[in-house]
Amino acid sequence: LAAQAKLLQFLESLAIERLGETRSRKVDVRVIAASNKELQDEVQAKRFREDLYYRLNVIDVHVPPLRTHREDISELVEYFLEVTCQELGIPTKTLEEPALKKLRELSWPGNVRQLRNTIEKAISLTPGLTIRLSDLPELAYEEKEDVVEIGSDSLQDARKEFERRFILQALEEEDWNMSAAAERLGLDRTNLYRKIKALKIKRRNHERTALHLSNCGRHFRDDCFIRANCCRQPSGSYGYTDNNHCCLHFVQGTTLML
């Protein structure tokens, strides 16, 4: 709430003070704000300032979840394939129709961000130029996750399973950004890490398959290819760390294990 008060003050004055300065500077900006929560509910719950809400809510644009406009998935996939391959400096890959059909059937709780991450992973792990359904084994797993079976488990076990799935969904929708997921769940990071460990929550598709990169002559396991917070590295490279603290760097389209 303290940060919201500062943001509201800026929106009212359109002036900032640089660190170490005592005078204000006027700035000419337009603010585009987005939220994955219902802000009216957050206002009623006293987690979002009402005055800031009305100050930001000039033009309200509602973006529906991806599952409600599946007809756009084909175009989004084509776009992500082209852009990602260009960024990696490799020929543009294509997606087989059975794989594309499967993508259109999924519920996508993480919306466009989850779809993009799925395409990026498929590009990185598929050696050829055509991505097949067999290259996306986690898709079948996600379909099974939507089905809740009531067996002989106790109420305590059922609660743990619900908590596990609830936390997993928040992590996936926040792209496994621990700070964002913890804030969304109303937990601190330490407590979130404890729950992940206690509930044995892992990223999906942790298969220990070996991947050979011909352009660097190195092998690494798929379970090391877990994308977390991106950190800017020198010389135009990007580093990613996984839960096992191994680090991957992308340098000019080449994947290296450091």
UniProtKB/TrEMBL annotation:
InterPro entries: AAA_lid_NorR (IPR058031), Homeodomain-like_sf (IPR009057), HTH_Fis (IPR002197), P-loop_NTPase (IPR027417), Sigma_54_int (IPR002078), Sigma_54_int_dom_CS (IPR025944)
Biological process per Gene Ontology, one example term: regulation of DNA-templated transcription
Residue span, Sigma-54 factor interaction domain: 1-124
Keywords annotated in UniProt: ATP-binding, Nucleotide-binding, Transcription, Transcription regulation
Gene Ontology MF annotations: ATP binding; sequence-specific DNA binding
Signal sequence extent: none
Name the record gives this protein: Sigma-54 factor interaction domain-containing protein
